[in-house]
Model the fold of this input.
Amino acid sequence: MSKRALFTAILAAALNTTTTAQPTPPSEKPAGSPAKAADRLAWWREARFGMFIHWGPVSLRGTEIGWSRGKEVPTAEYDALYKQFSAERFDADRWVALAKSAGMKYIVLTSKHHDGFCLWDSRRSDYNVMKSPLHRDIDRELSDACRRAGIRFCTYYSILDWRDPNYPLGEAPGGGPKIKPDMDTYVAGMKGQLKELLTNYGPIGLVWFDGQWEAPWSYERGVDLEKFVRSLQPDTIINDRLGPGKPGAPALGDYATPEQTIGGFNRDRPWETCMTICQQWAWKPDDNLKPLRECLHALVRCVGGDGNLLFNVGPMPDGRIEDRQADRLREMGAWLEKYGESVYATRGGPYMPGANLASTTRGNAVYLHVLAWPEGGLRLPALGAKVVKSAVLTGGKASVTQGDDALLIEVAPSERDPIDTIIKLELDREGLAIAPIASEPAK
Ligand code: H79
Done:
């Protein structure tokens, strides 16, 4: 196994996420019926593409926000970084304008990550942005900017907090053992903070929990937390990282969250892949930036699997997003500007993503995203519907041959798009009515 594959395997195991179908629980879920959940999720399903922002004083060191405290950066030093966090060039409108020009429809901000630092003016913790030289409520400015621009503002909140004196794991502020940590006291503080976030910043599109996998937390605490959030904002969406899974018990939250990997095709349980534009979540100087092709393929493979992509940027310590990352996002936006009809408000399928292909559908249209061309053209299992019309959105013409067991698609090599040749098929029926089909070549 390659180092990267091993890393991914460890990550998947650590996060215990799955995109396989899970039984939809009956109405013992706090928010009521599955129909109600579908209403709540409608905007997010159509949005398909969001921006994740990982930011905090740790950007001053360029190490990872999730796990460098007490490792690459000694605890006392890490916990003092906020005293130098001044980010003079932070401009919420610029972040939001960038998300918008990338074609993203929602923004998820790390209001509090595992390191415990709060990016908002919290009355529940002194370890917050108002105590740093920056002295600006980032949640406030970003949520206001989002509202002005018609982008949904969302908040990330880590259940685990390695610095909080009451949280049973990790080191005390500044380092060393914690004295008498107490989970119930910690949870009371956490709810106090969530109440701030969910009552003082307008409607929150979704709450992205994380860090639910450590021993002090439990499924039952997750159920209680879900209820608590819904009592404050009944229409907000909640991801699945509310707690560890429990065999036989209803899944927590509204949707699954594969991390740094594309989720599997699933039309039953909504899902969203979160993925970094570089390698680190928080900003790292000269981090490896993904090429445009890889970024667009990630998006197309998510949407083709009926999922979303939450694509992450880590702003620099001065508050700006690196030009090269911003440029990449704008390239994605320019692509979406042209081909967004094959992404937004579509559903995944009927062909499930495969080595060469992802497909999406809306109404009677099916969009084939050809990501690589096999020798002799694309040979697919039959659609089970009649193709009445075809067009190549990226330019040129497709020849479409419909046999009893196969659908053959050919586009002249000179007319193929190096990143994604998008072929729009008009069917004689709704694409969503067709049961999912493997996209591997028919034998
Ligand atoms: O916020 C982002 C990450 O910081 C957070 N989730 C996303 C959205 C996250 N926190 N922890 N994890 C993900 C799990 C990480 C596990 C590992 Fe590792 C990272 C396994 C290998 C590298 C940490 C460092 C554990 C071992 C080495």
User: Anything to note?
Assistant: The two ends are 30 Å apart (CA to CA). Residues 5-14, 16-30 have pLDDT under 50 and may be disordered. The longest strand covers residues 106-112. The chain has nine helices and 15 strands.
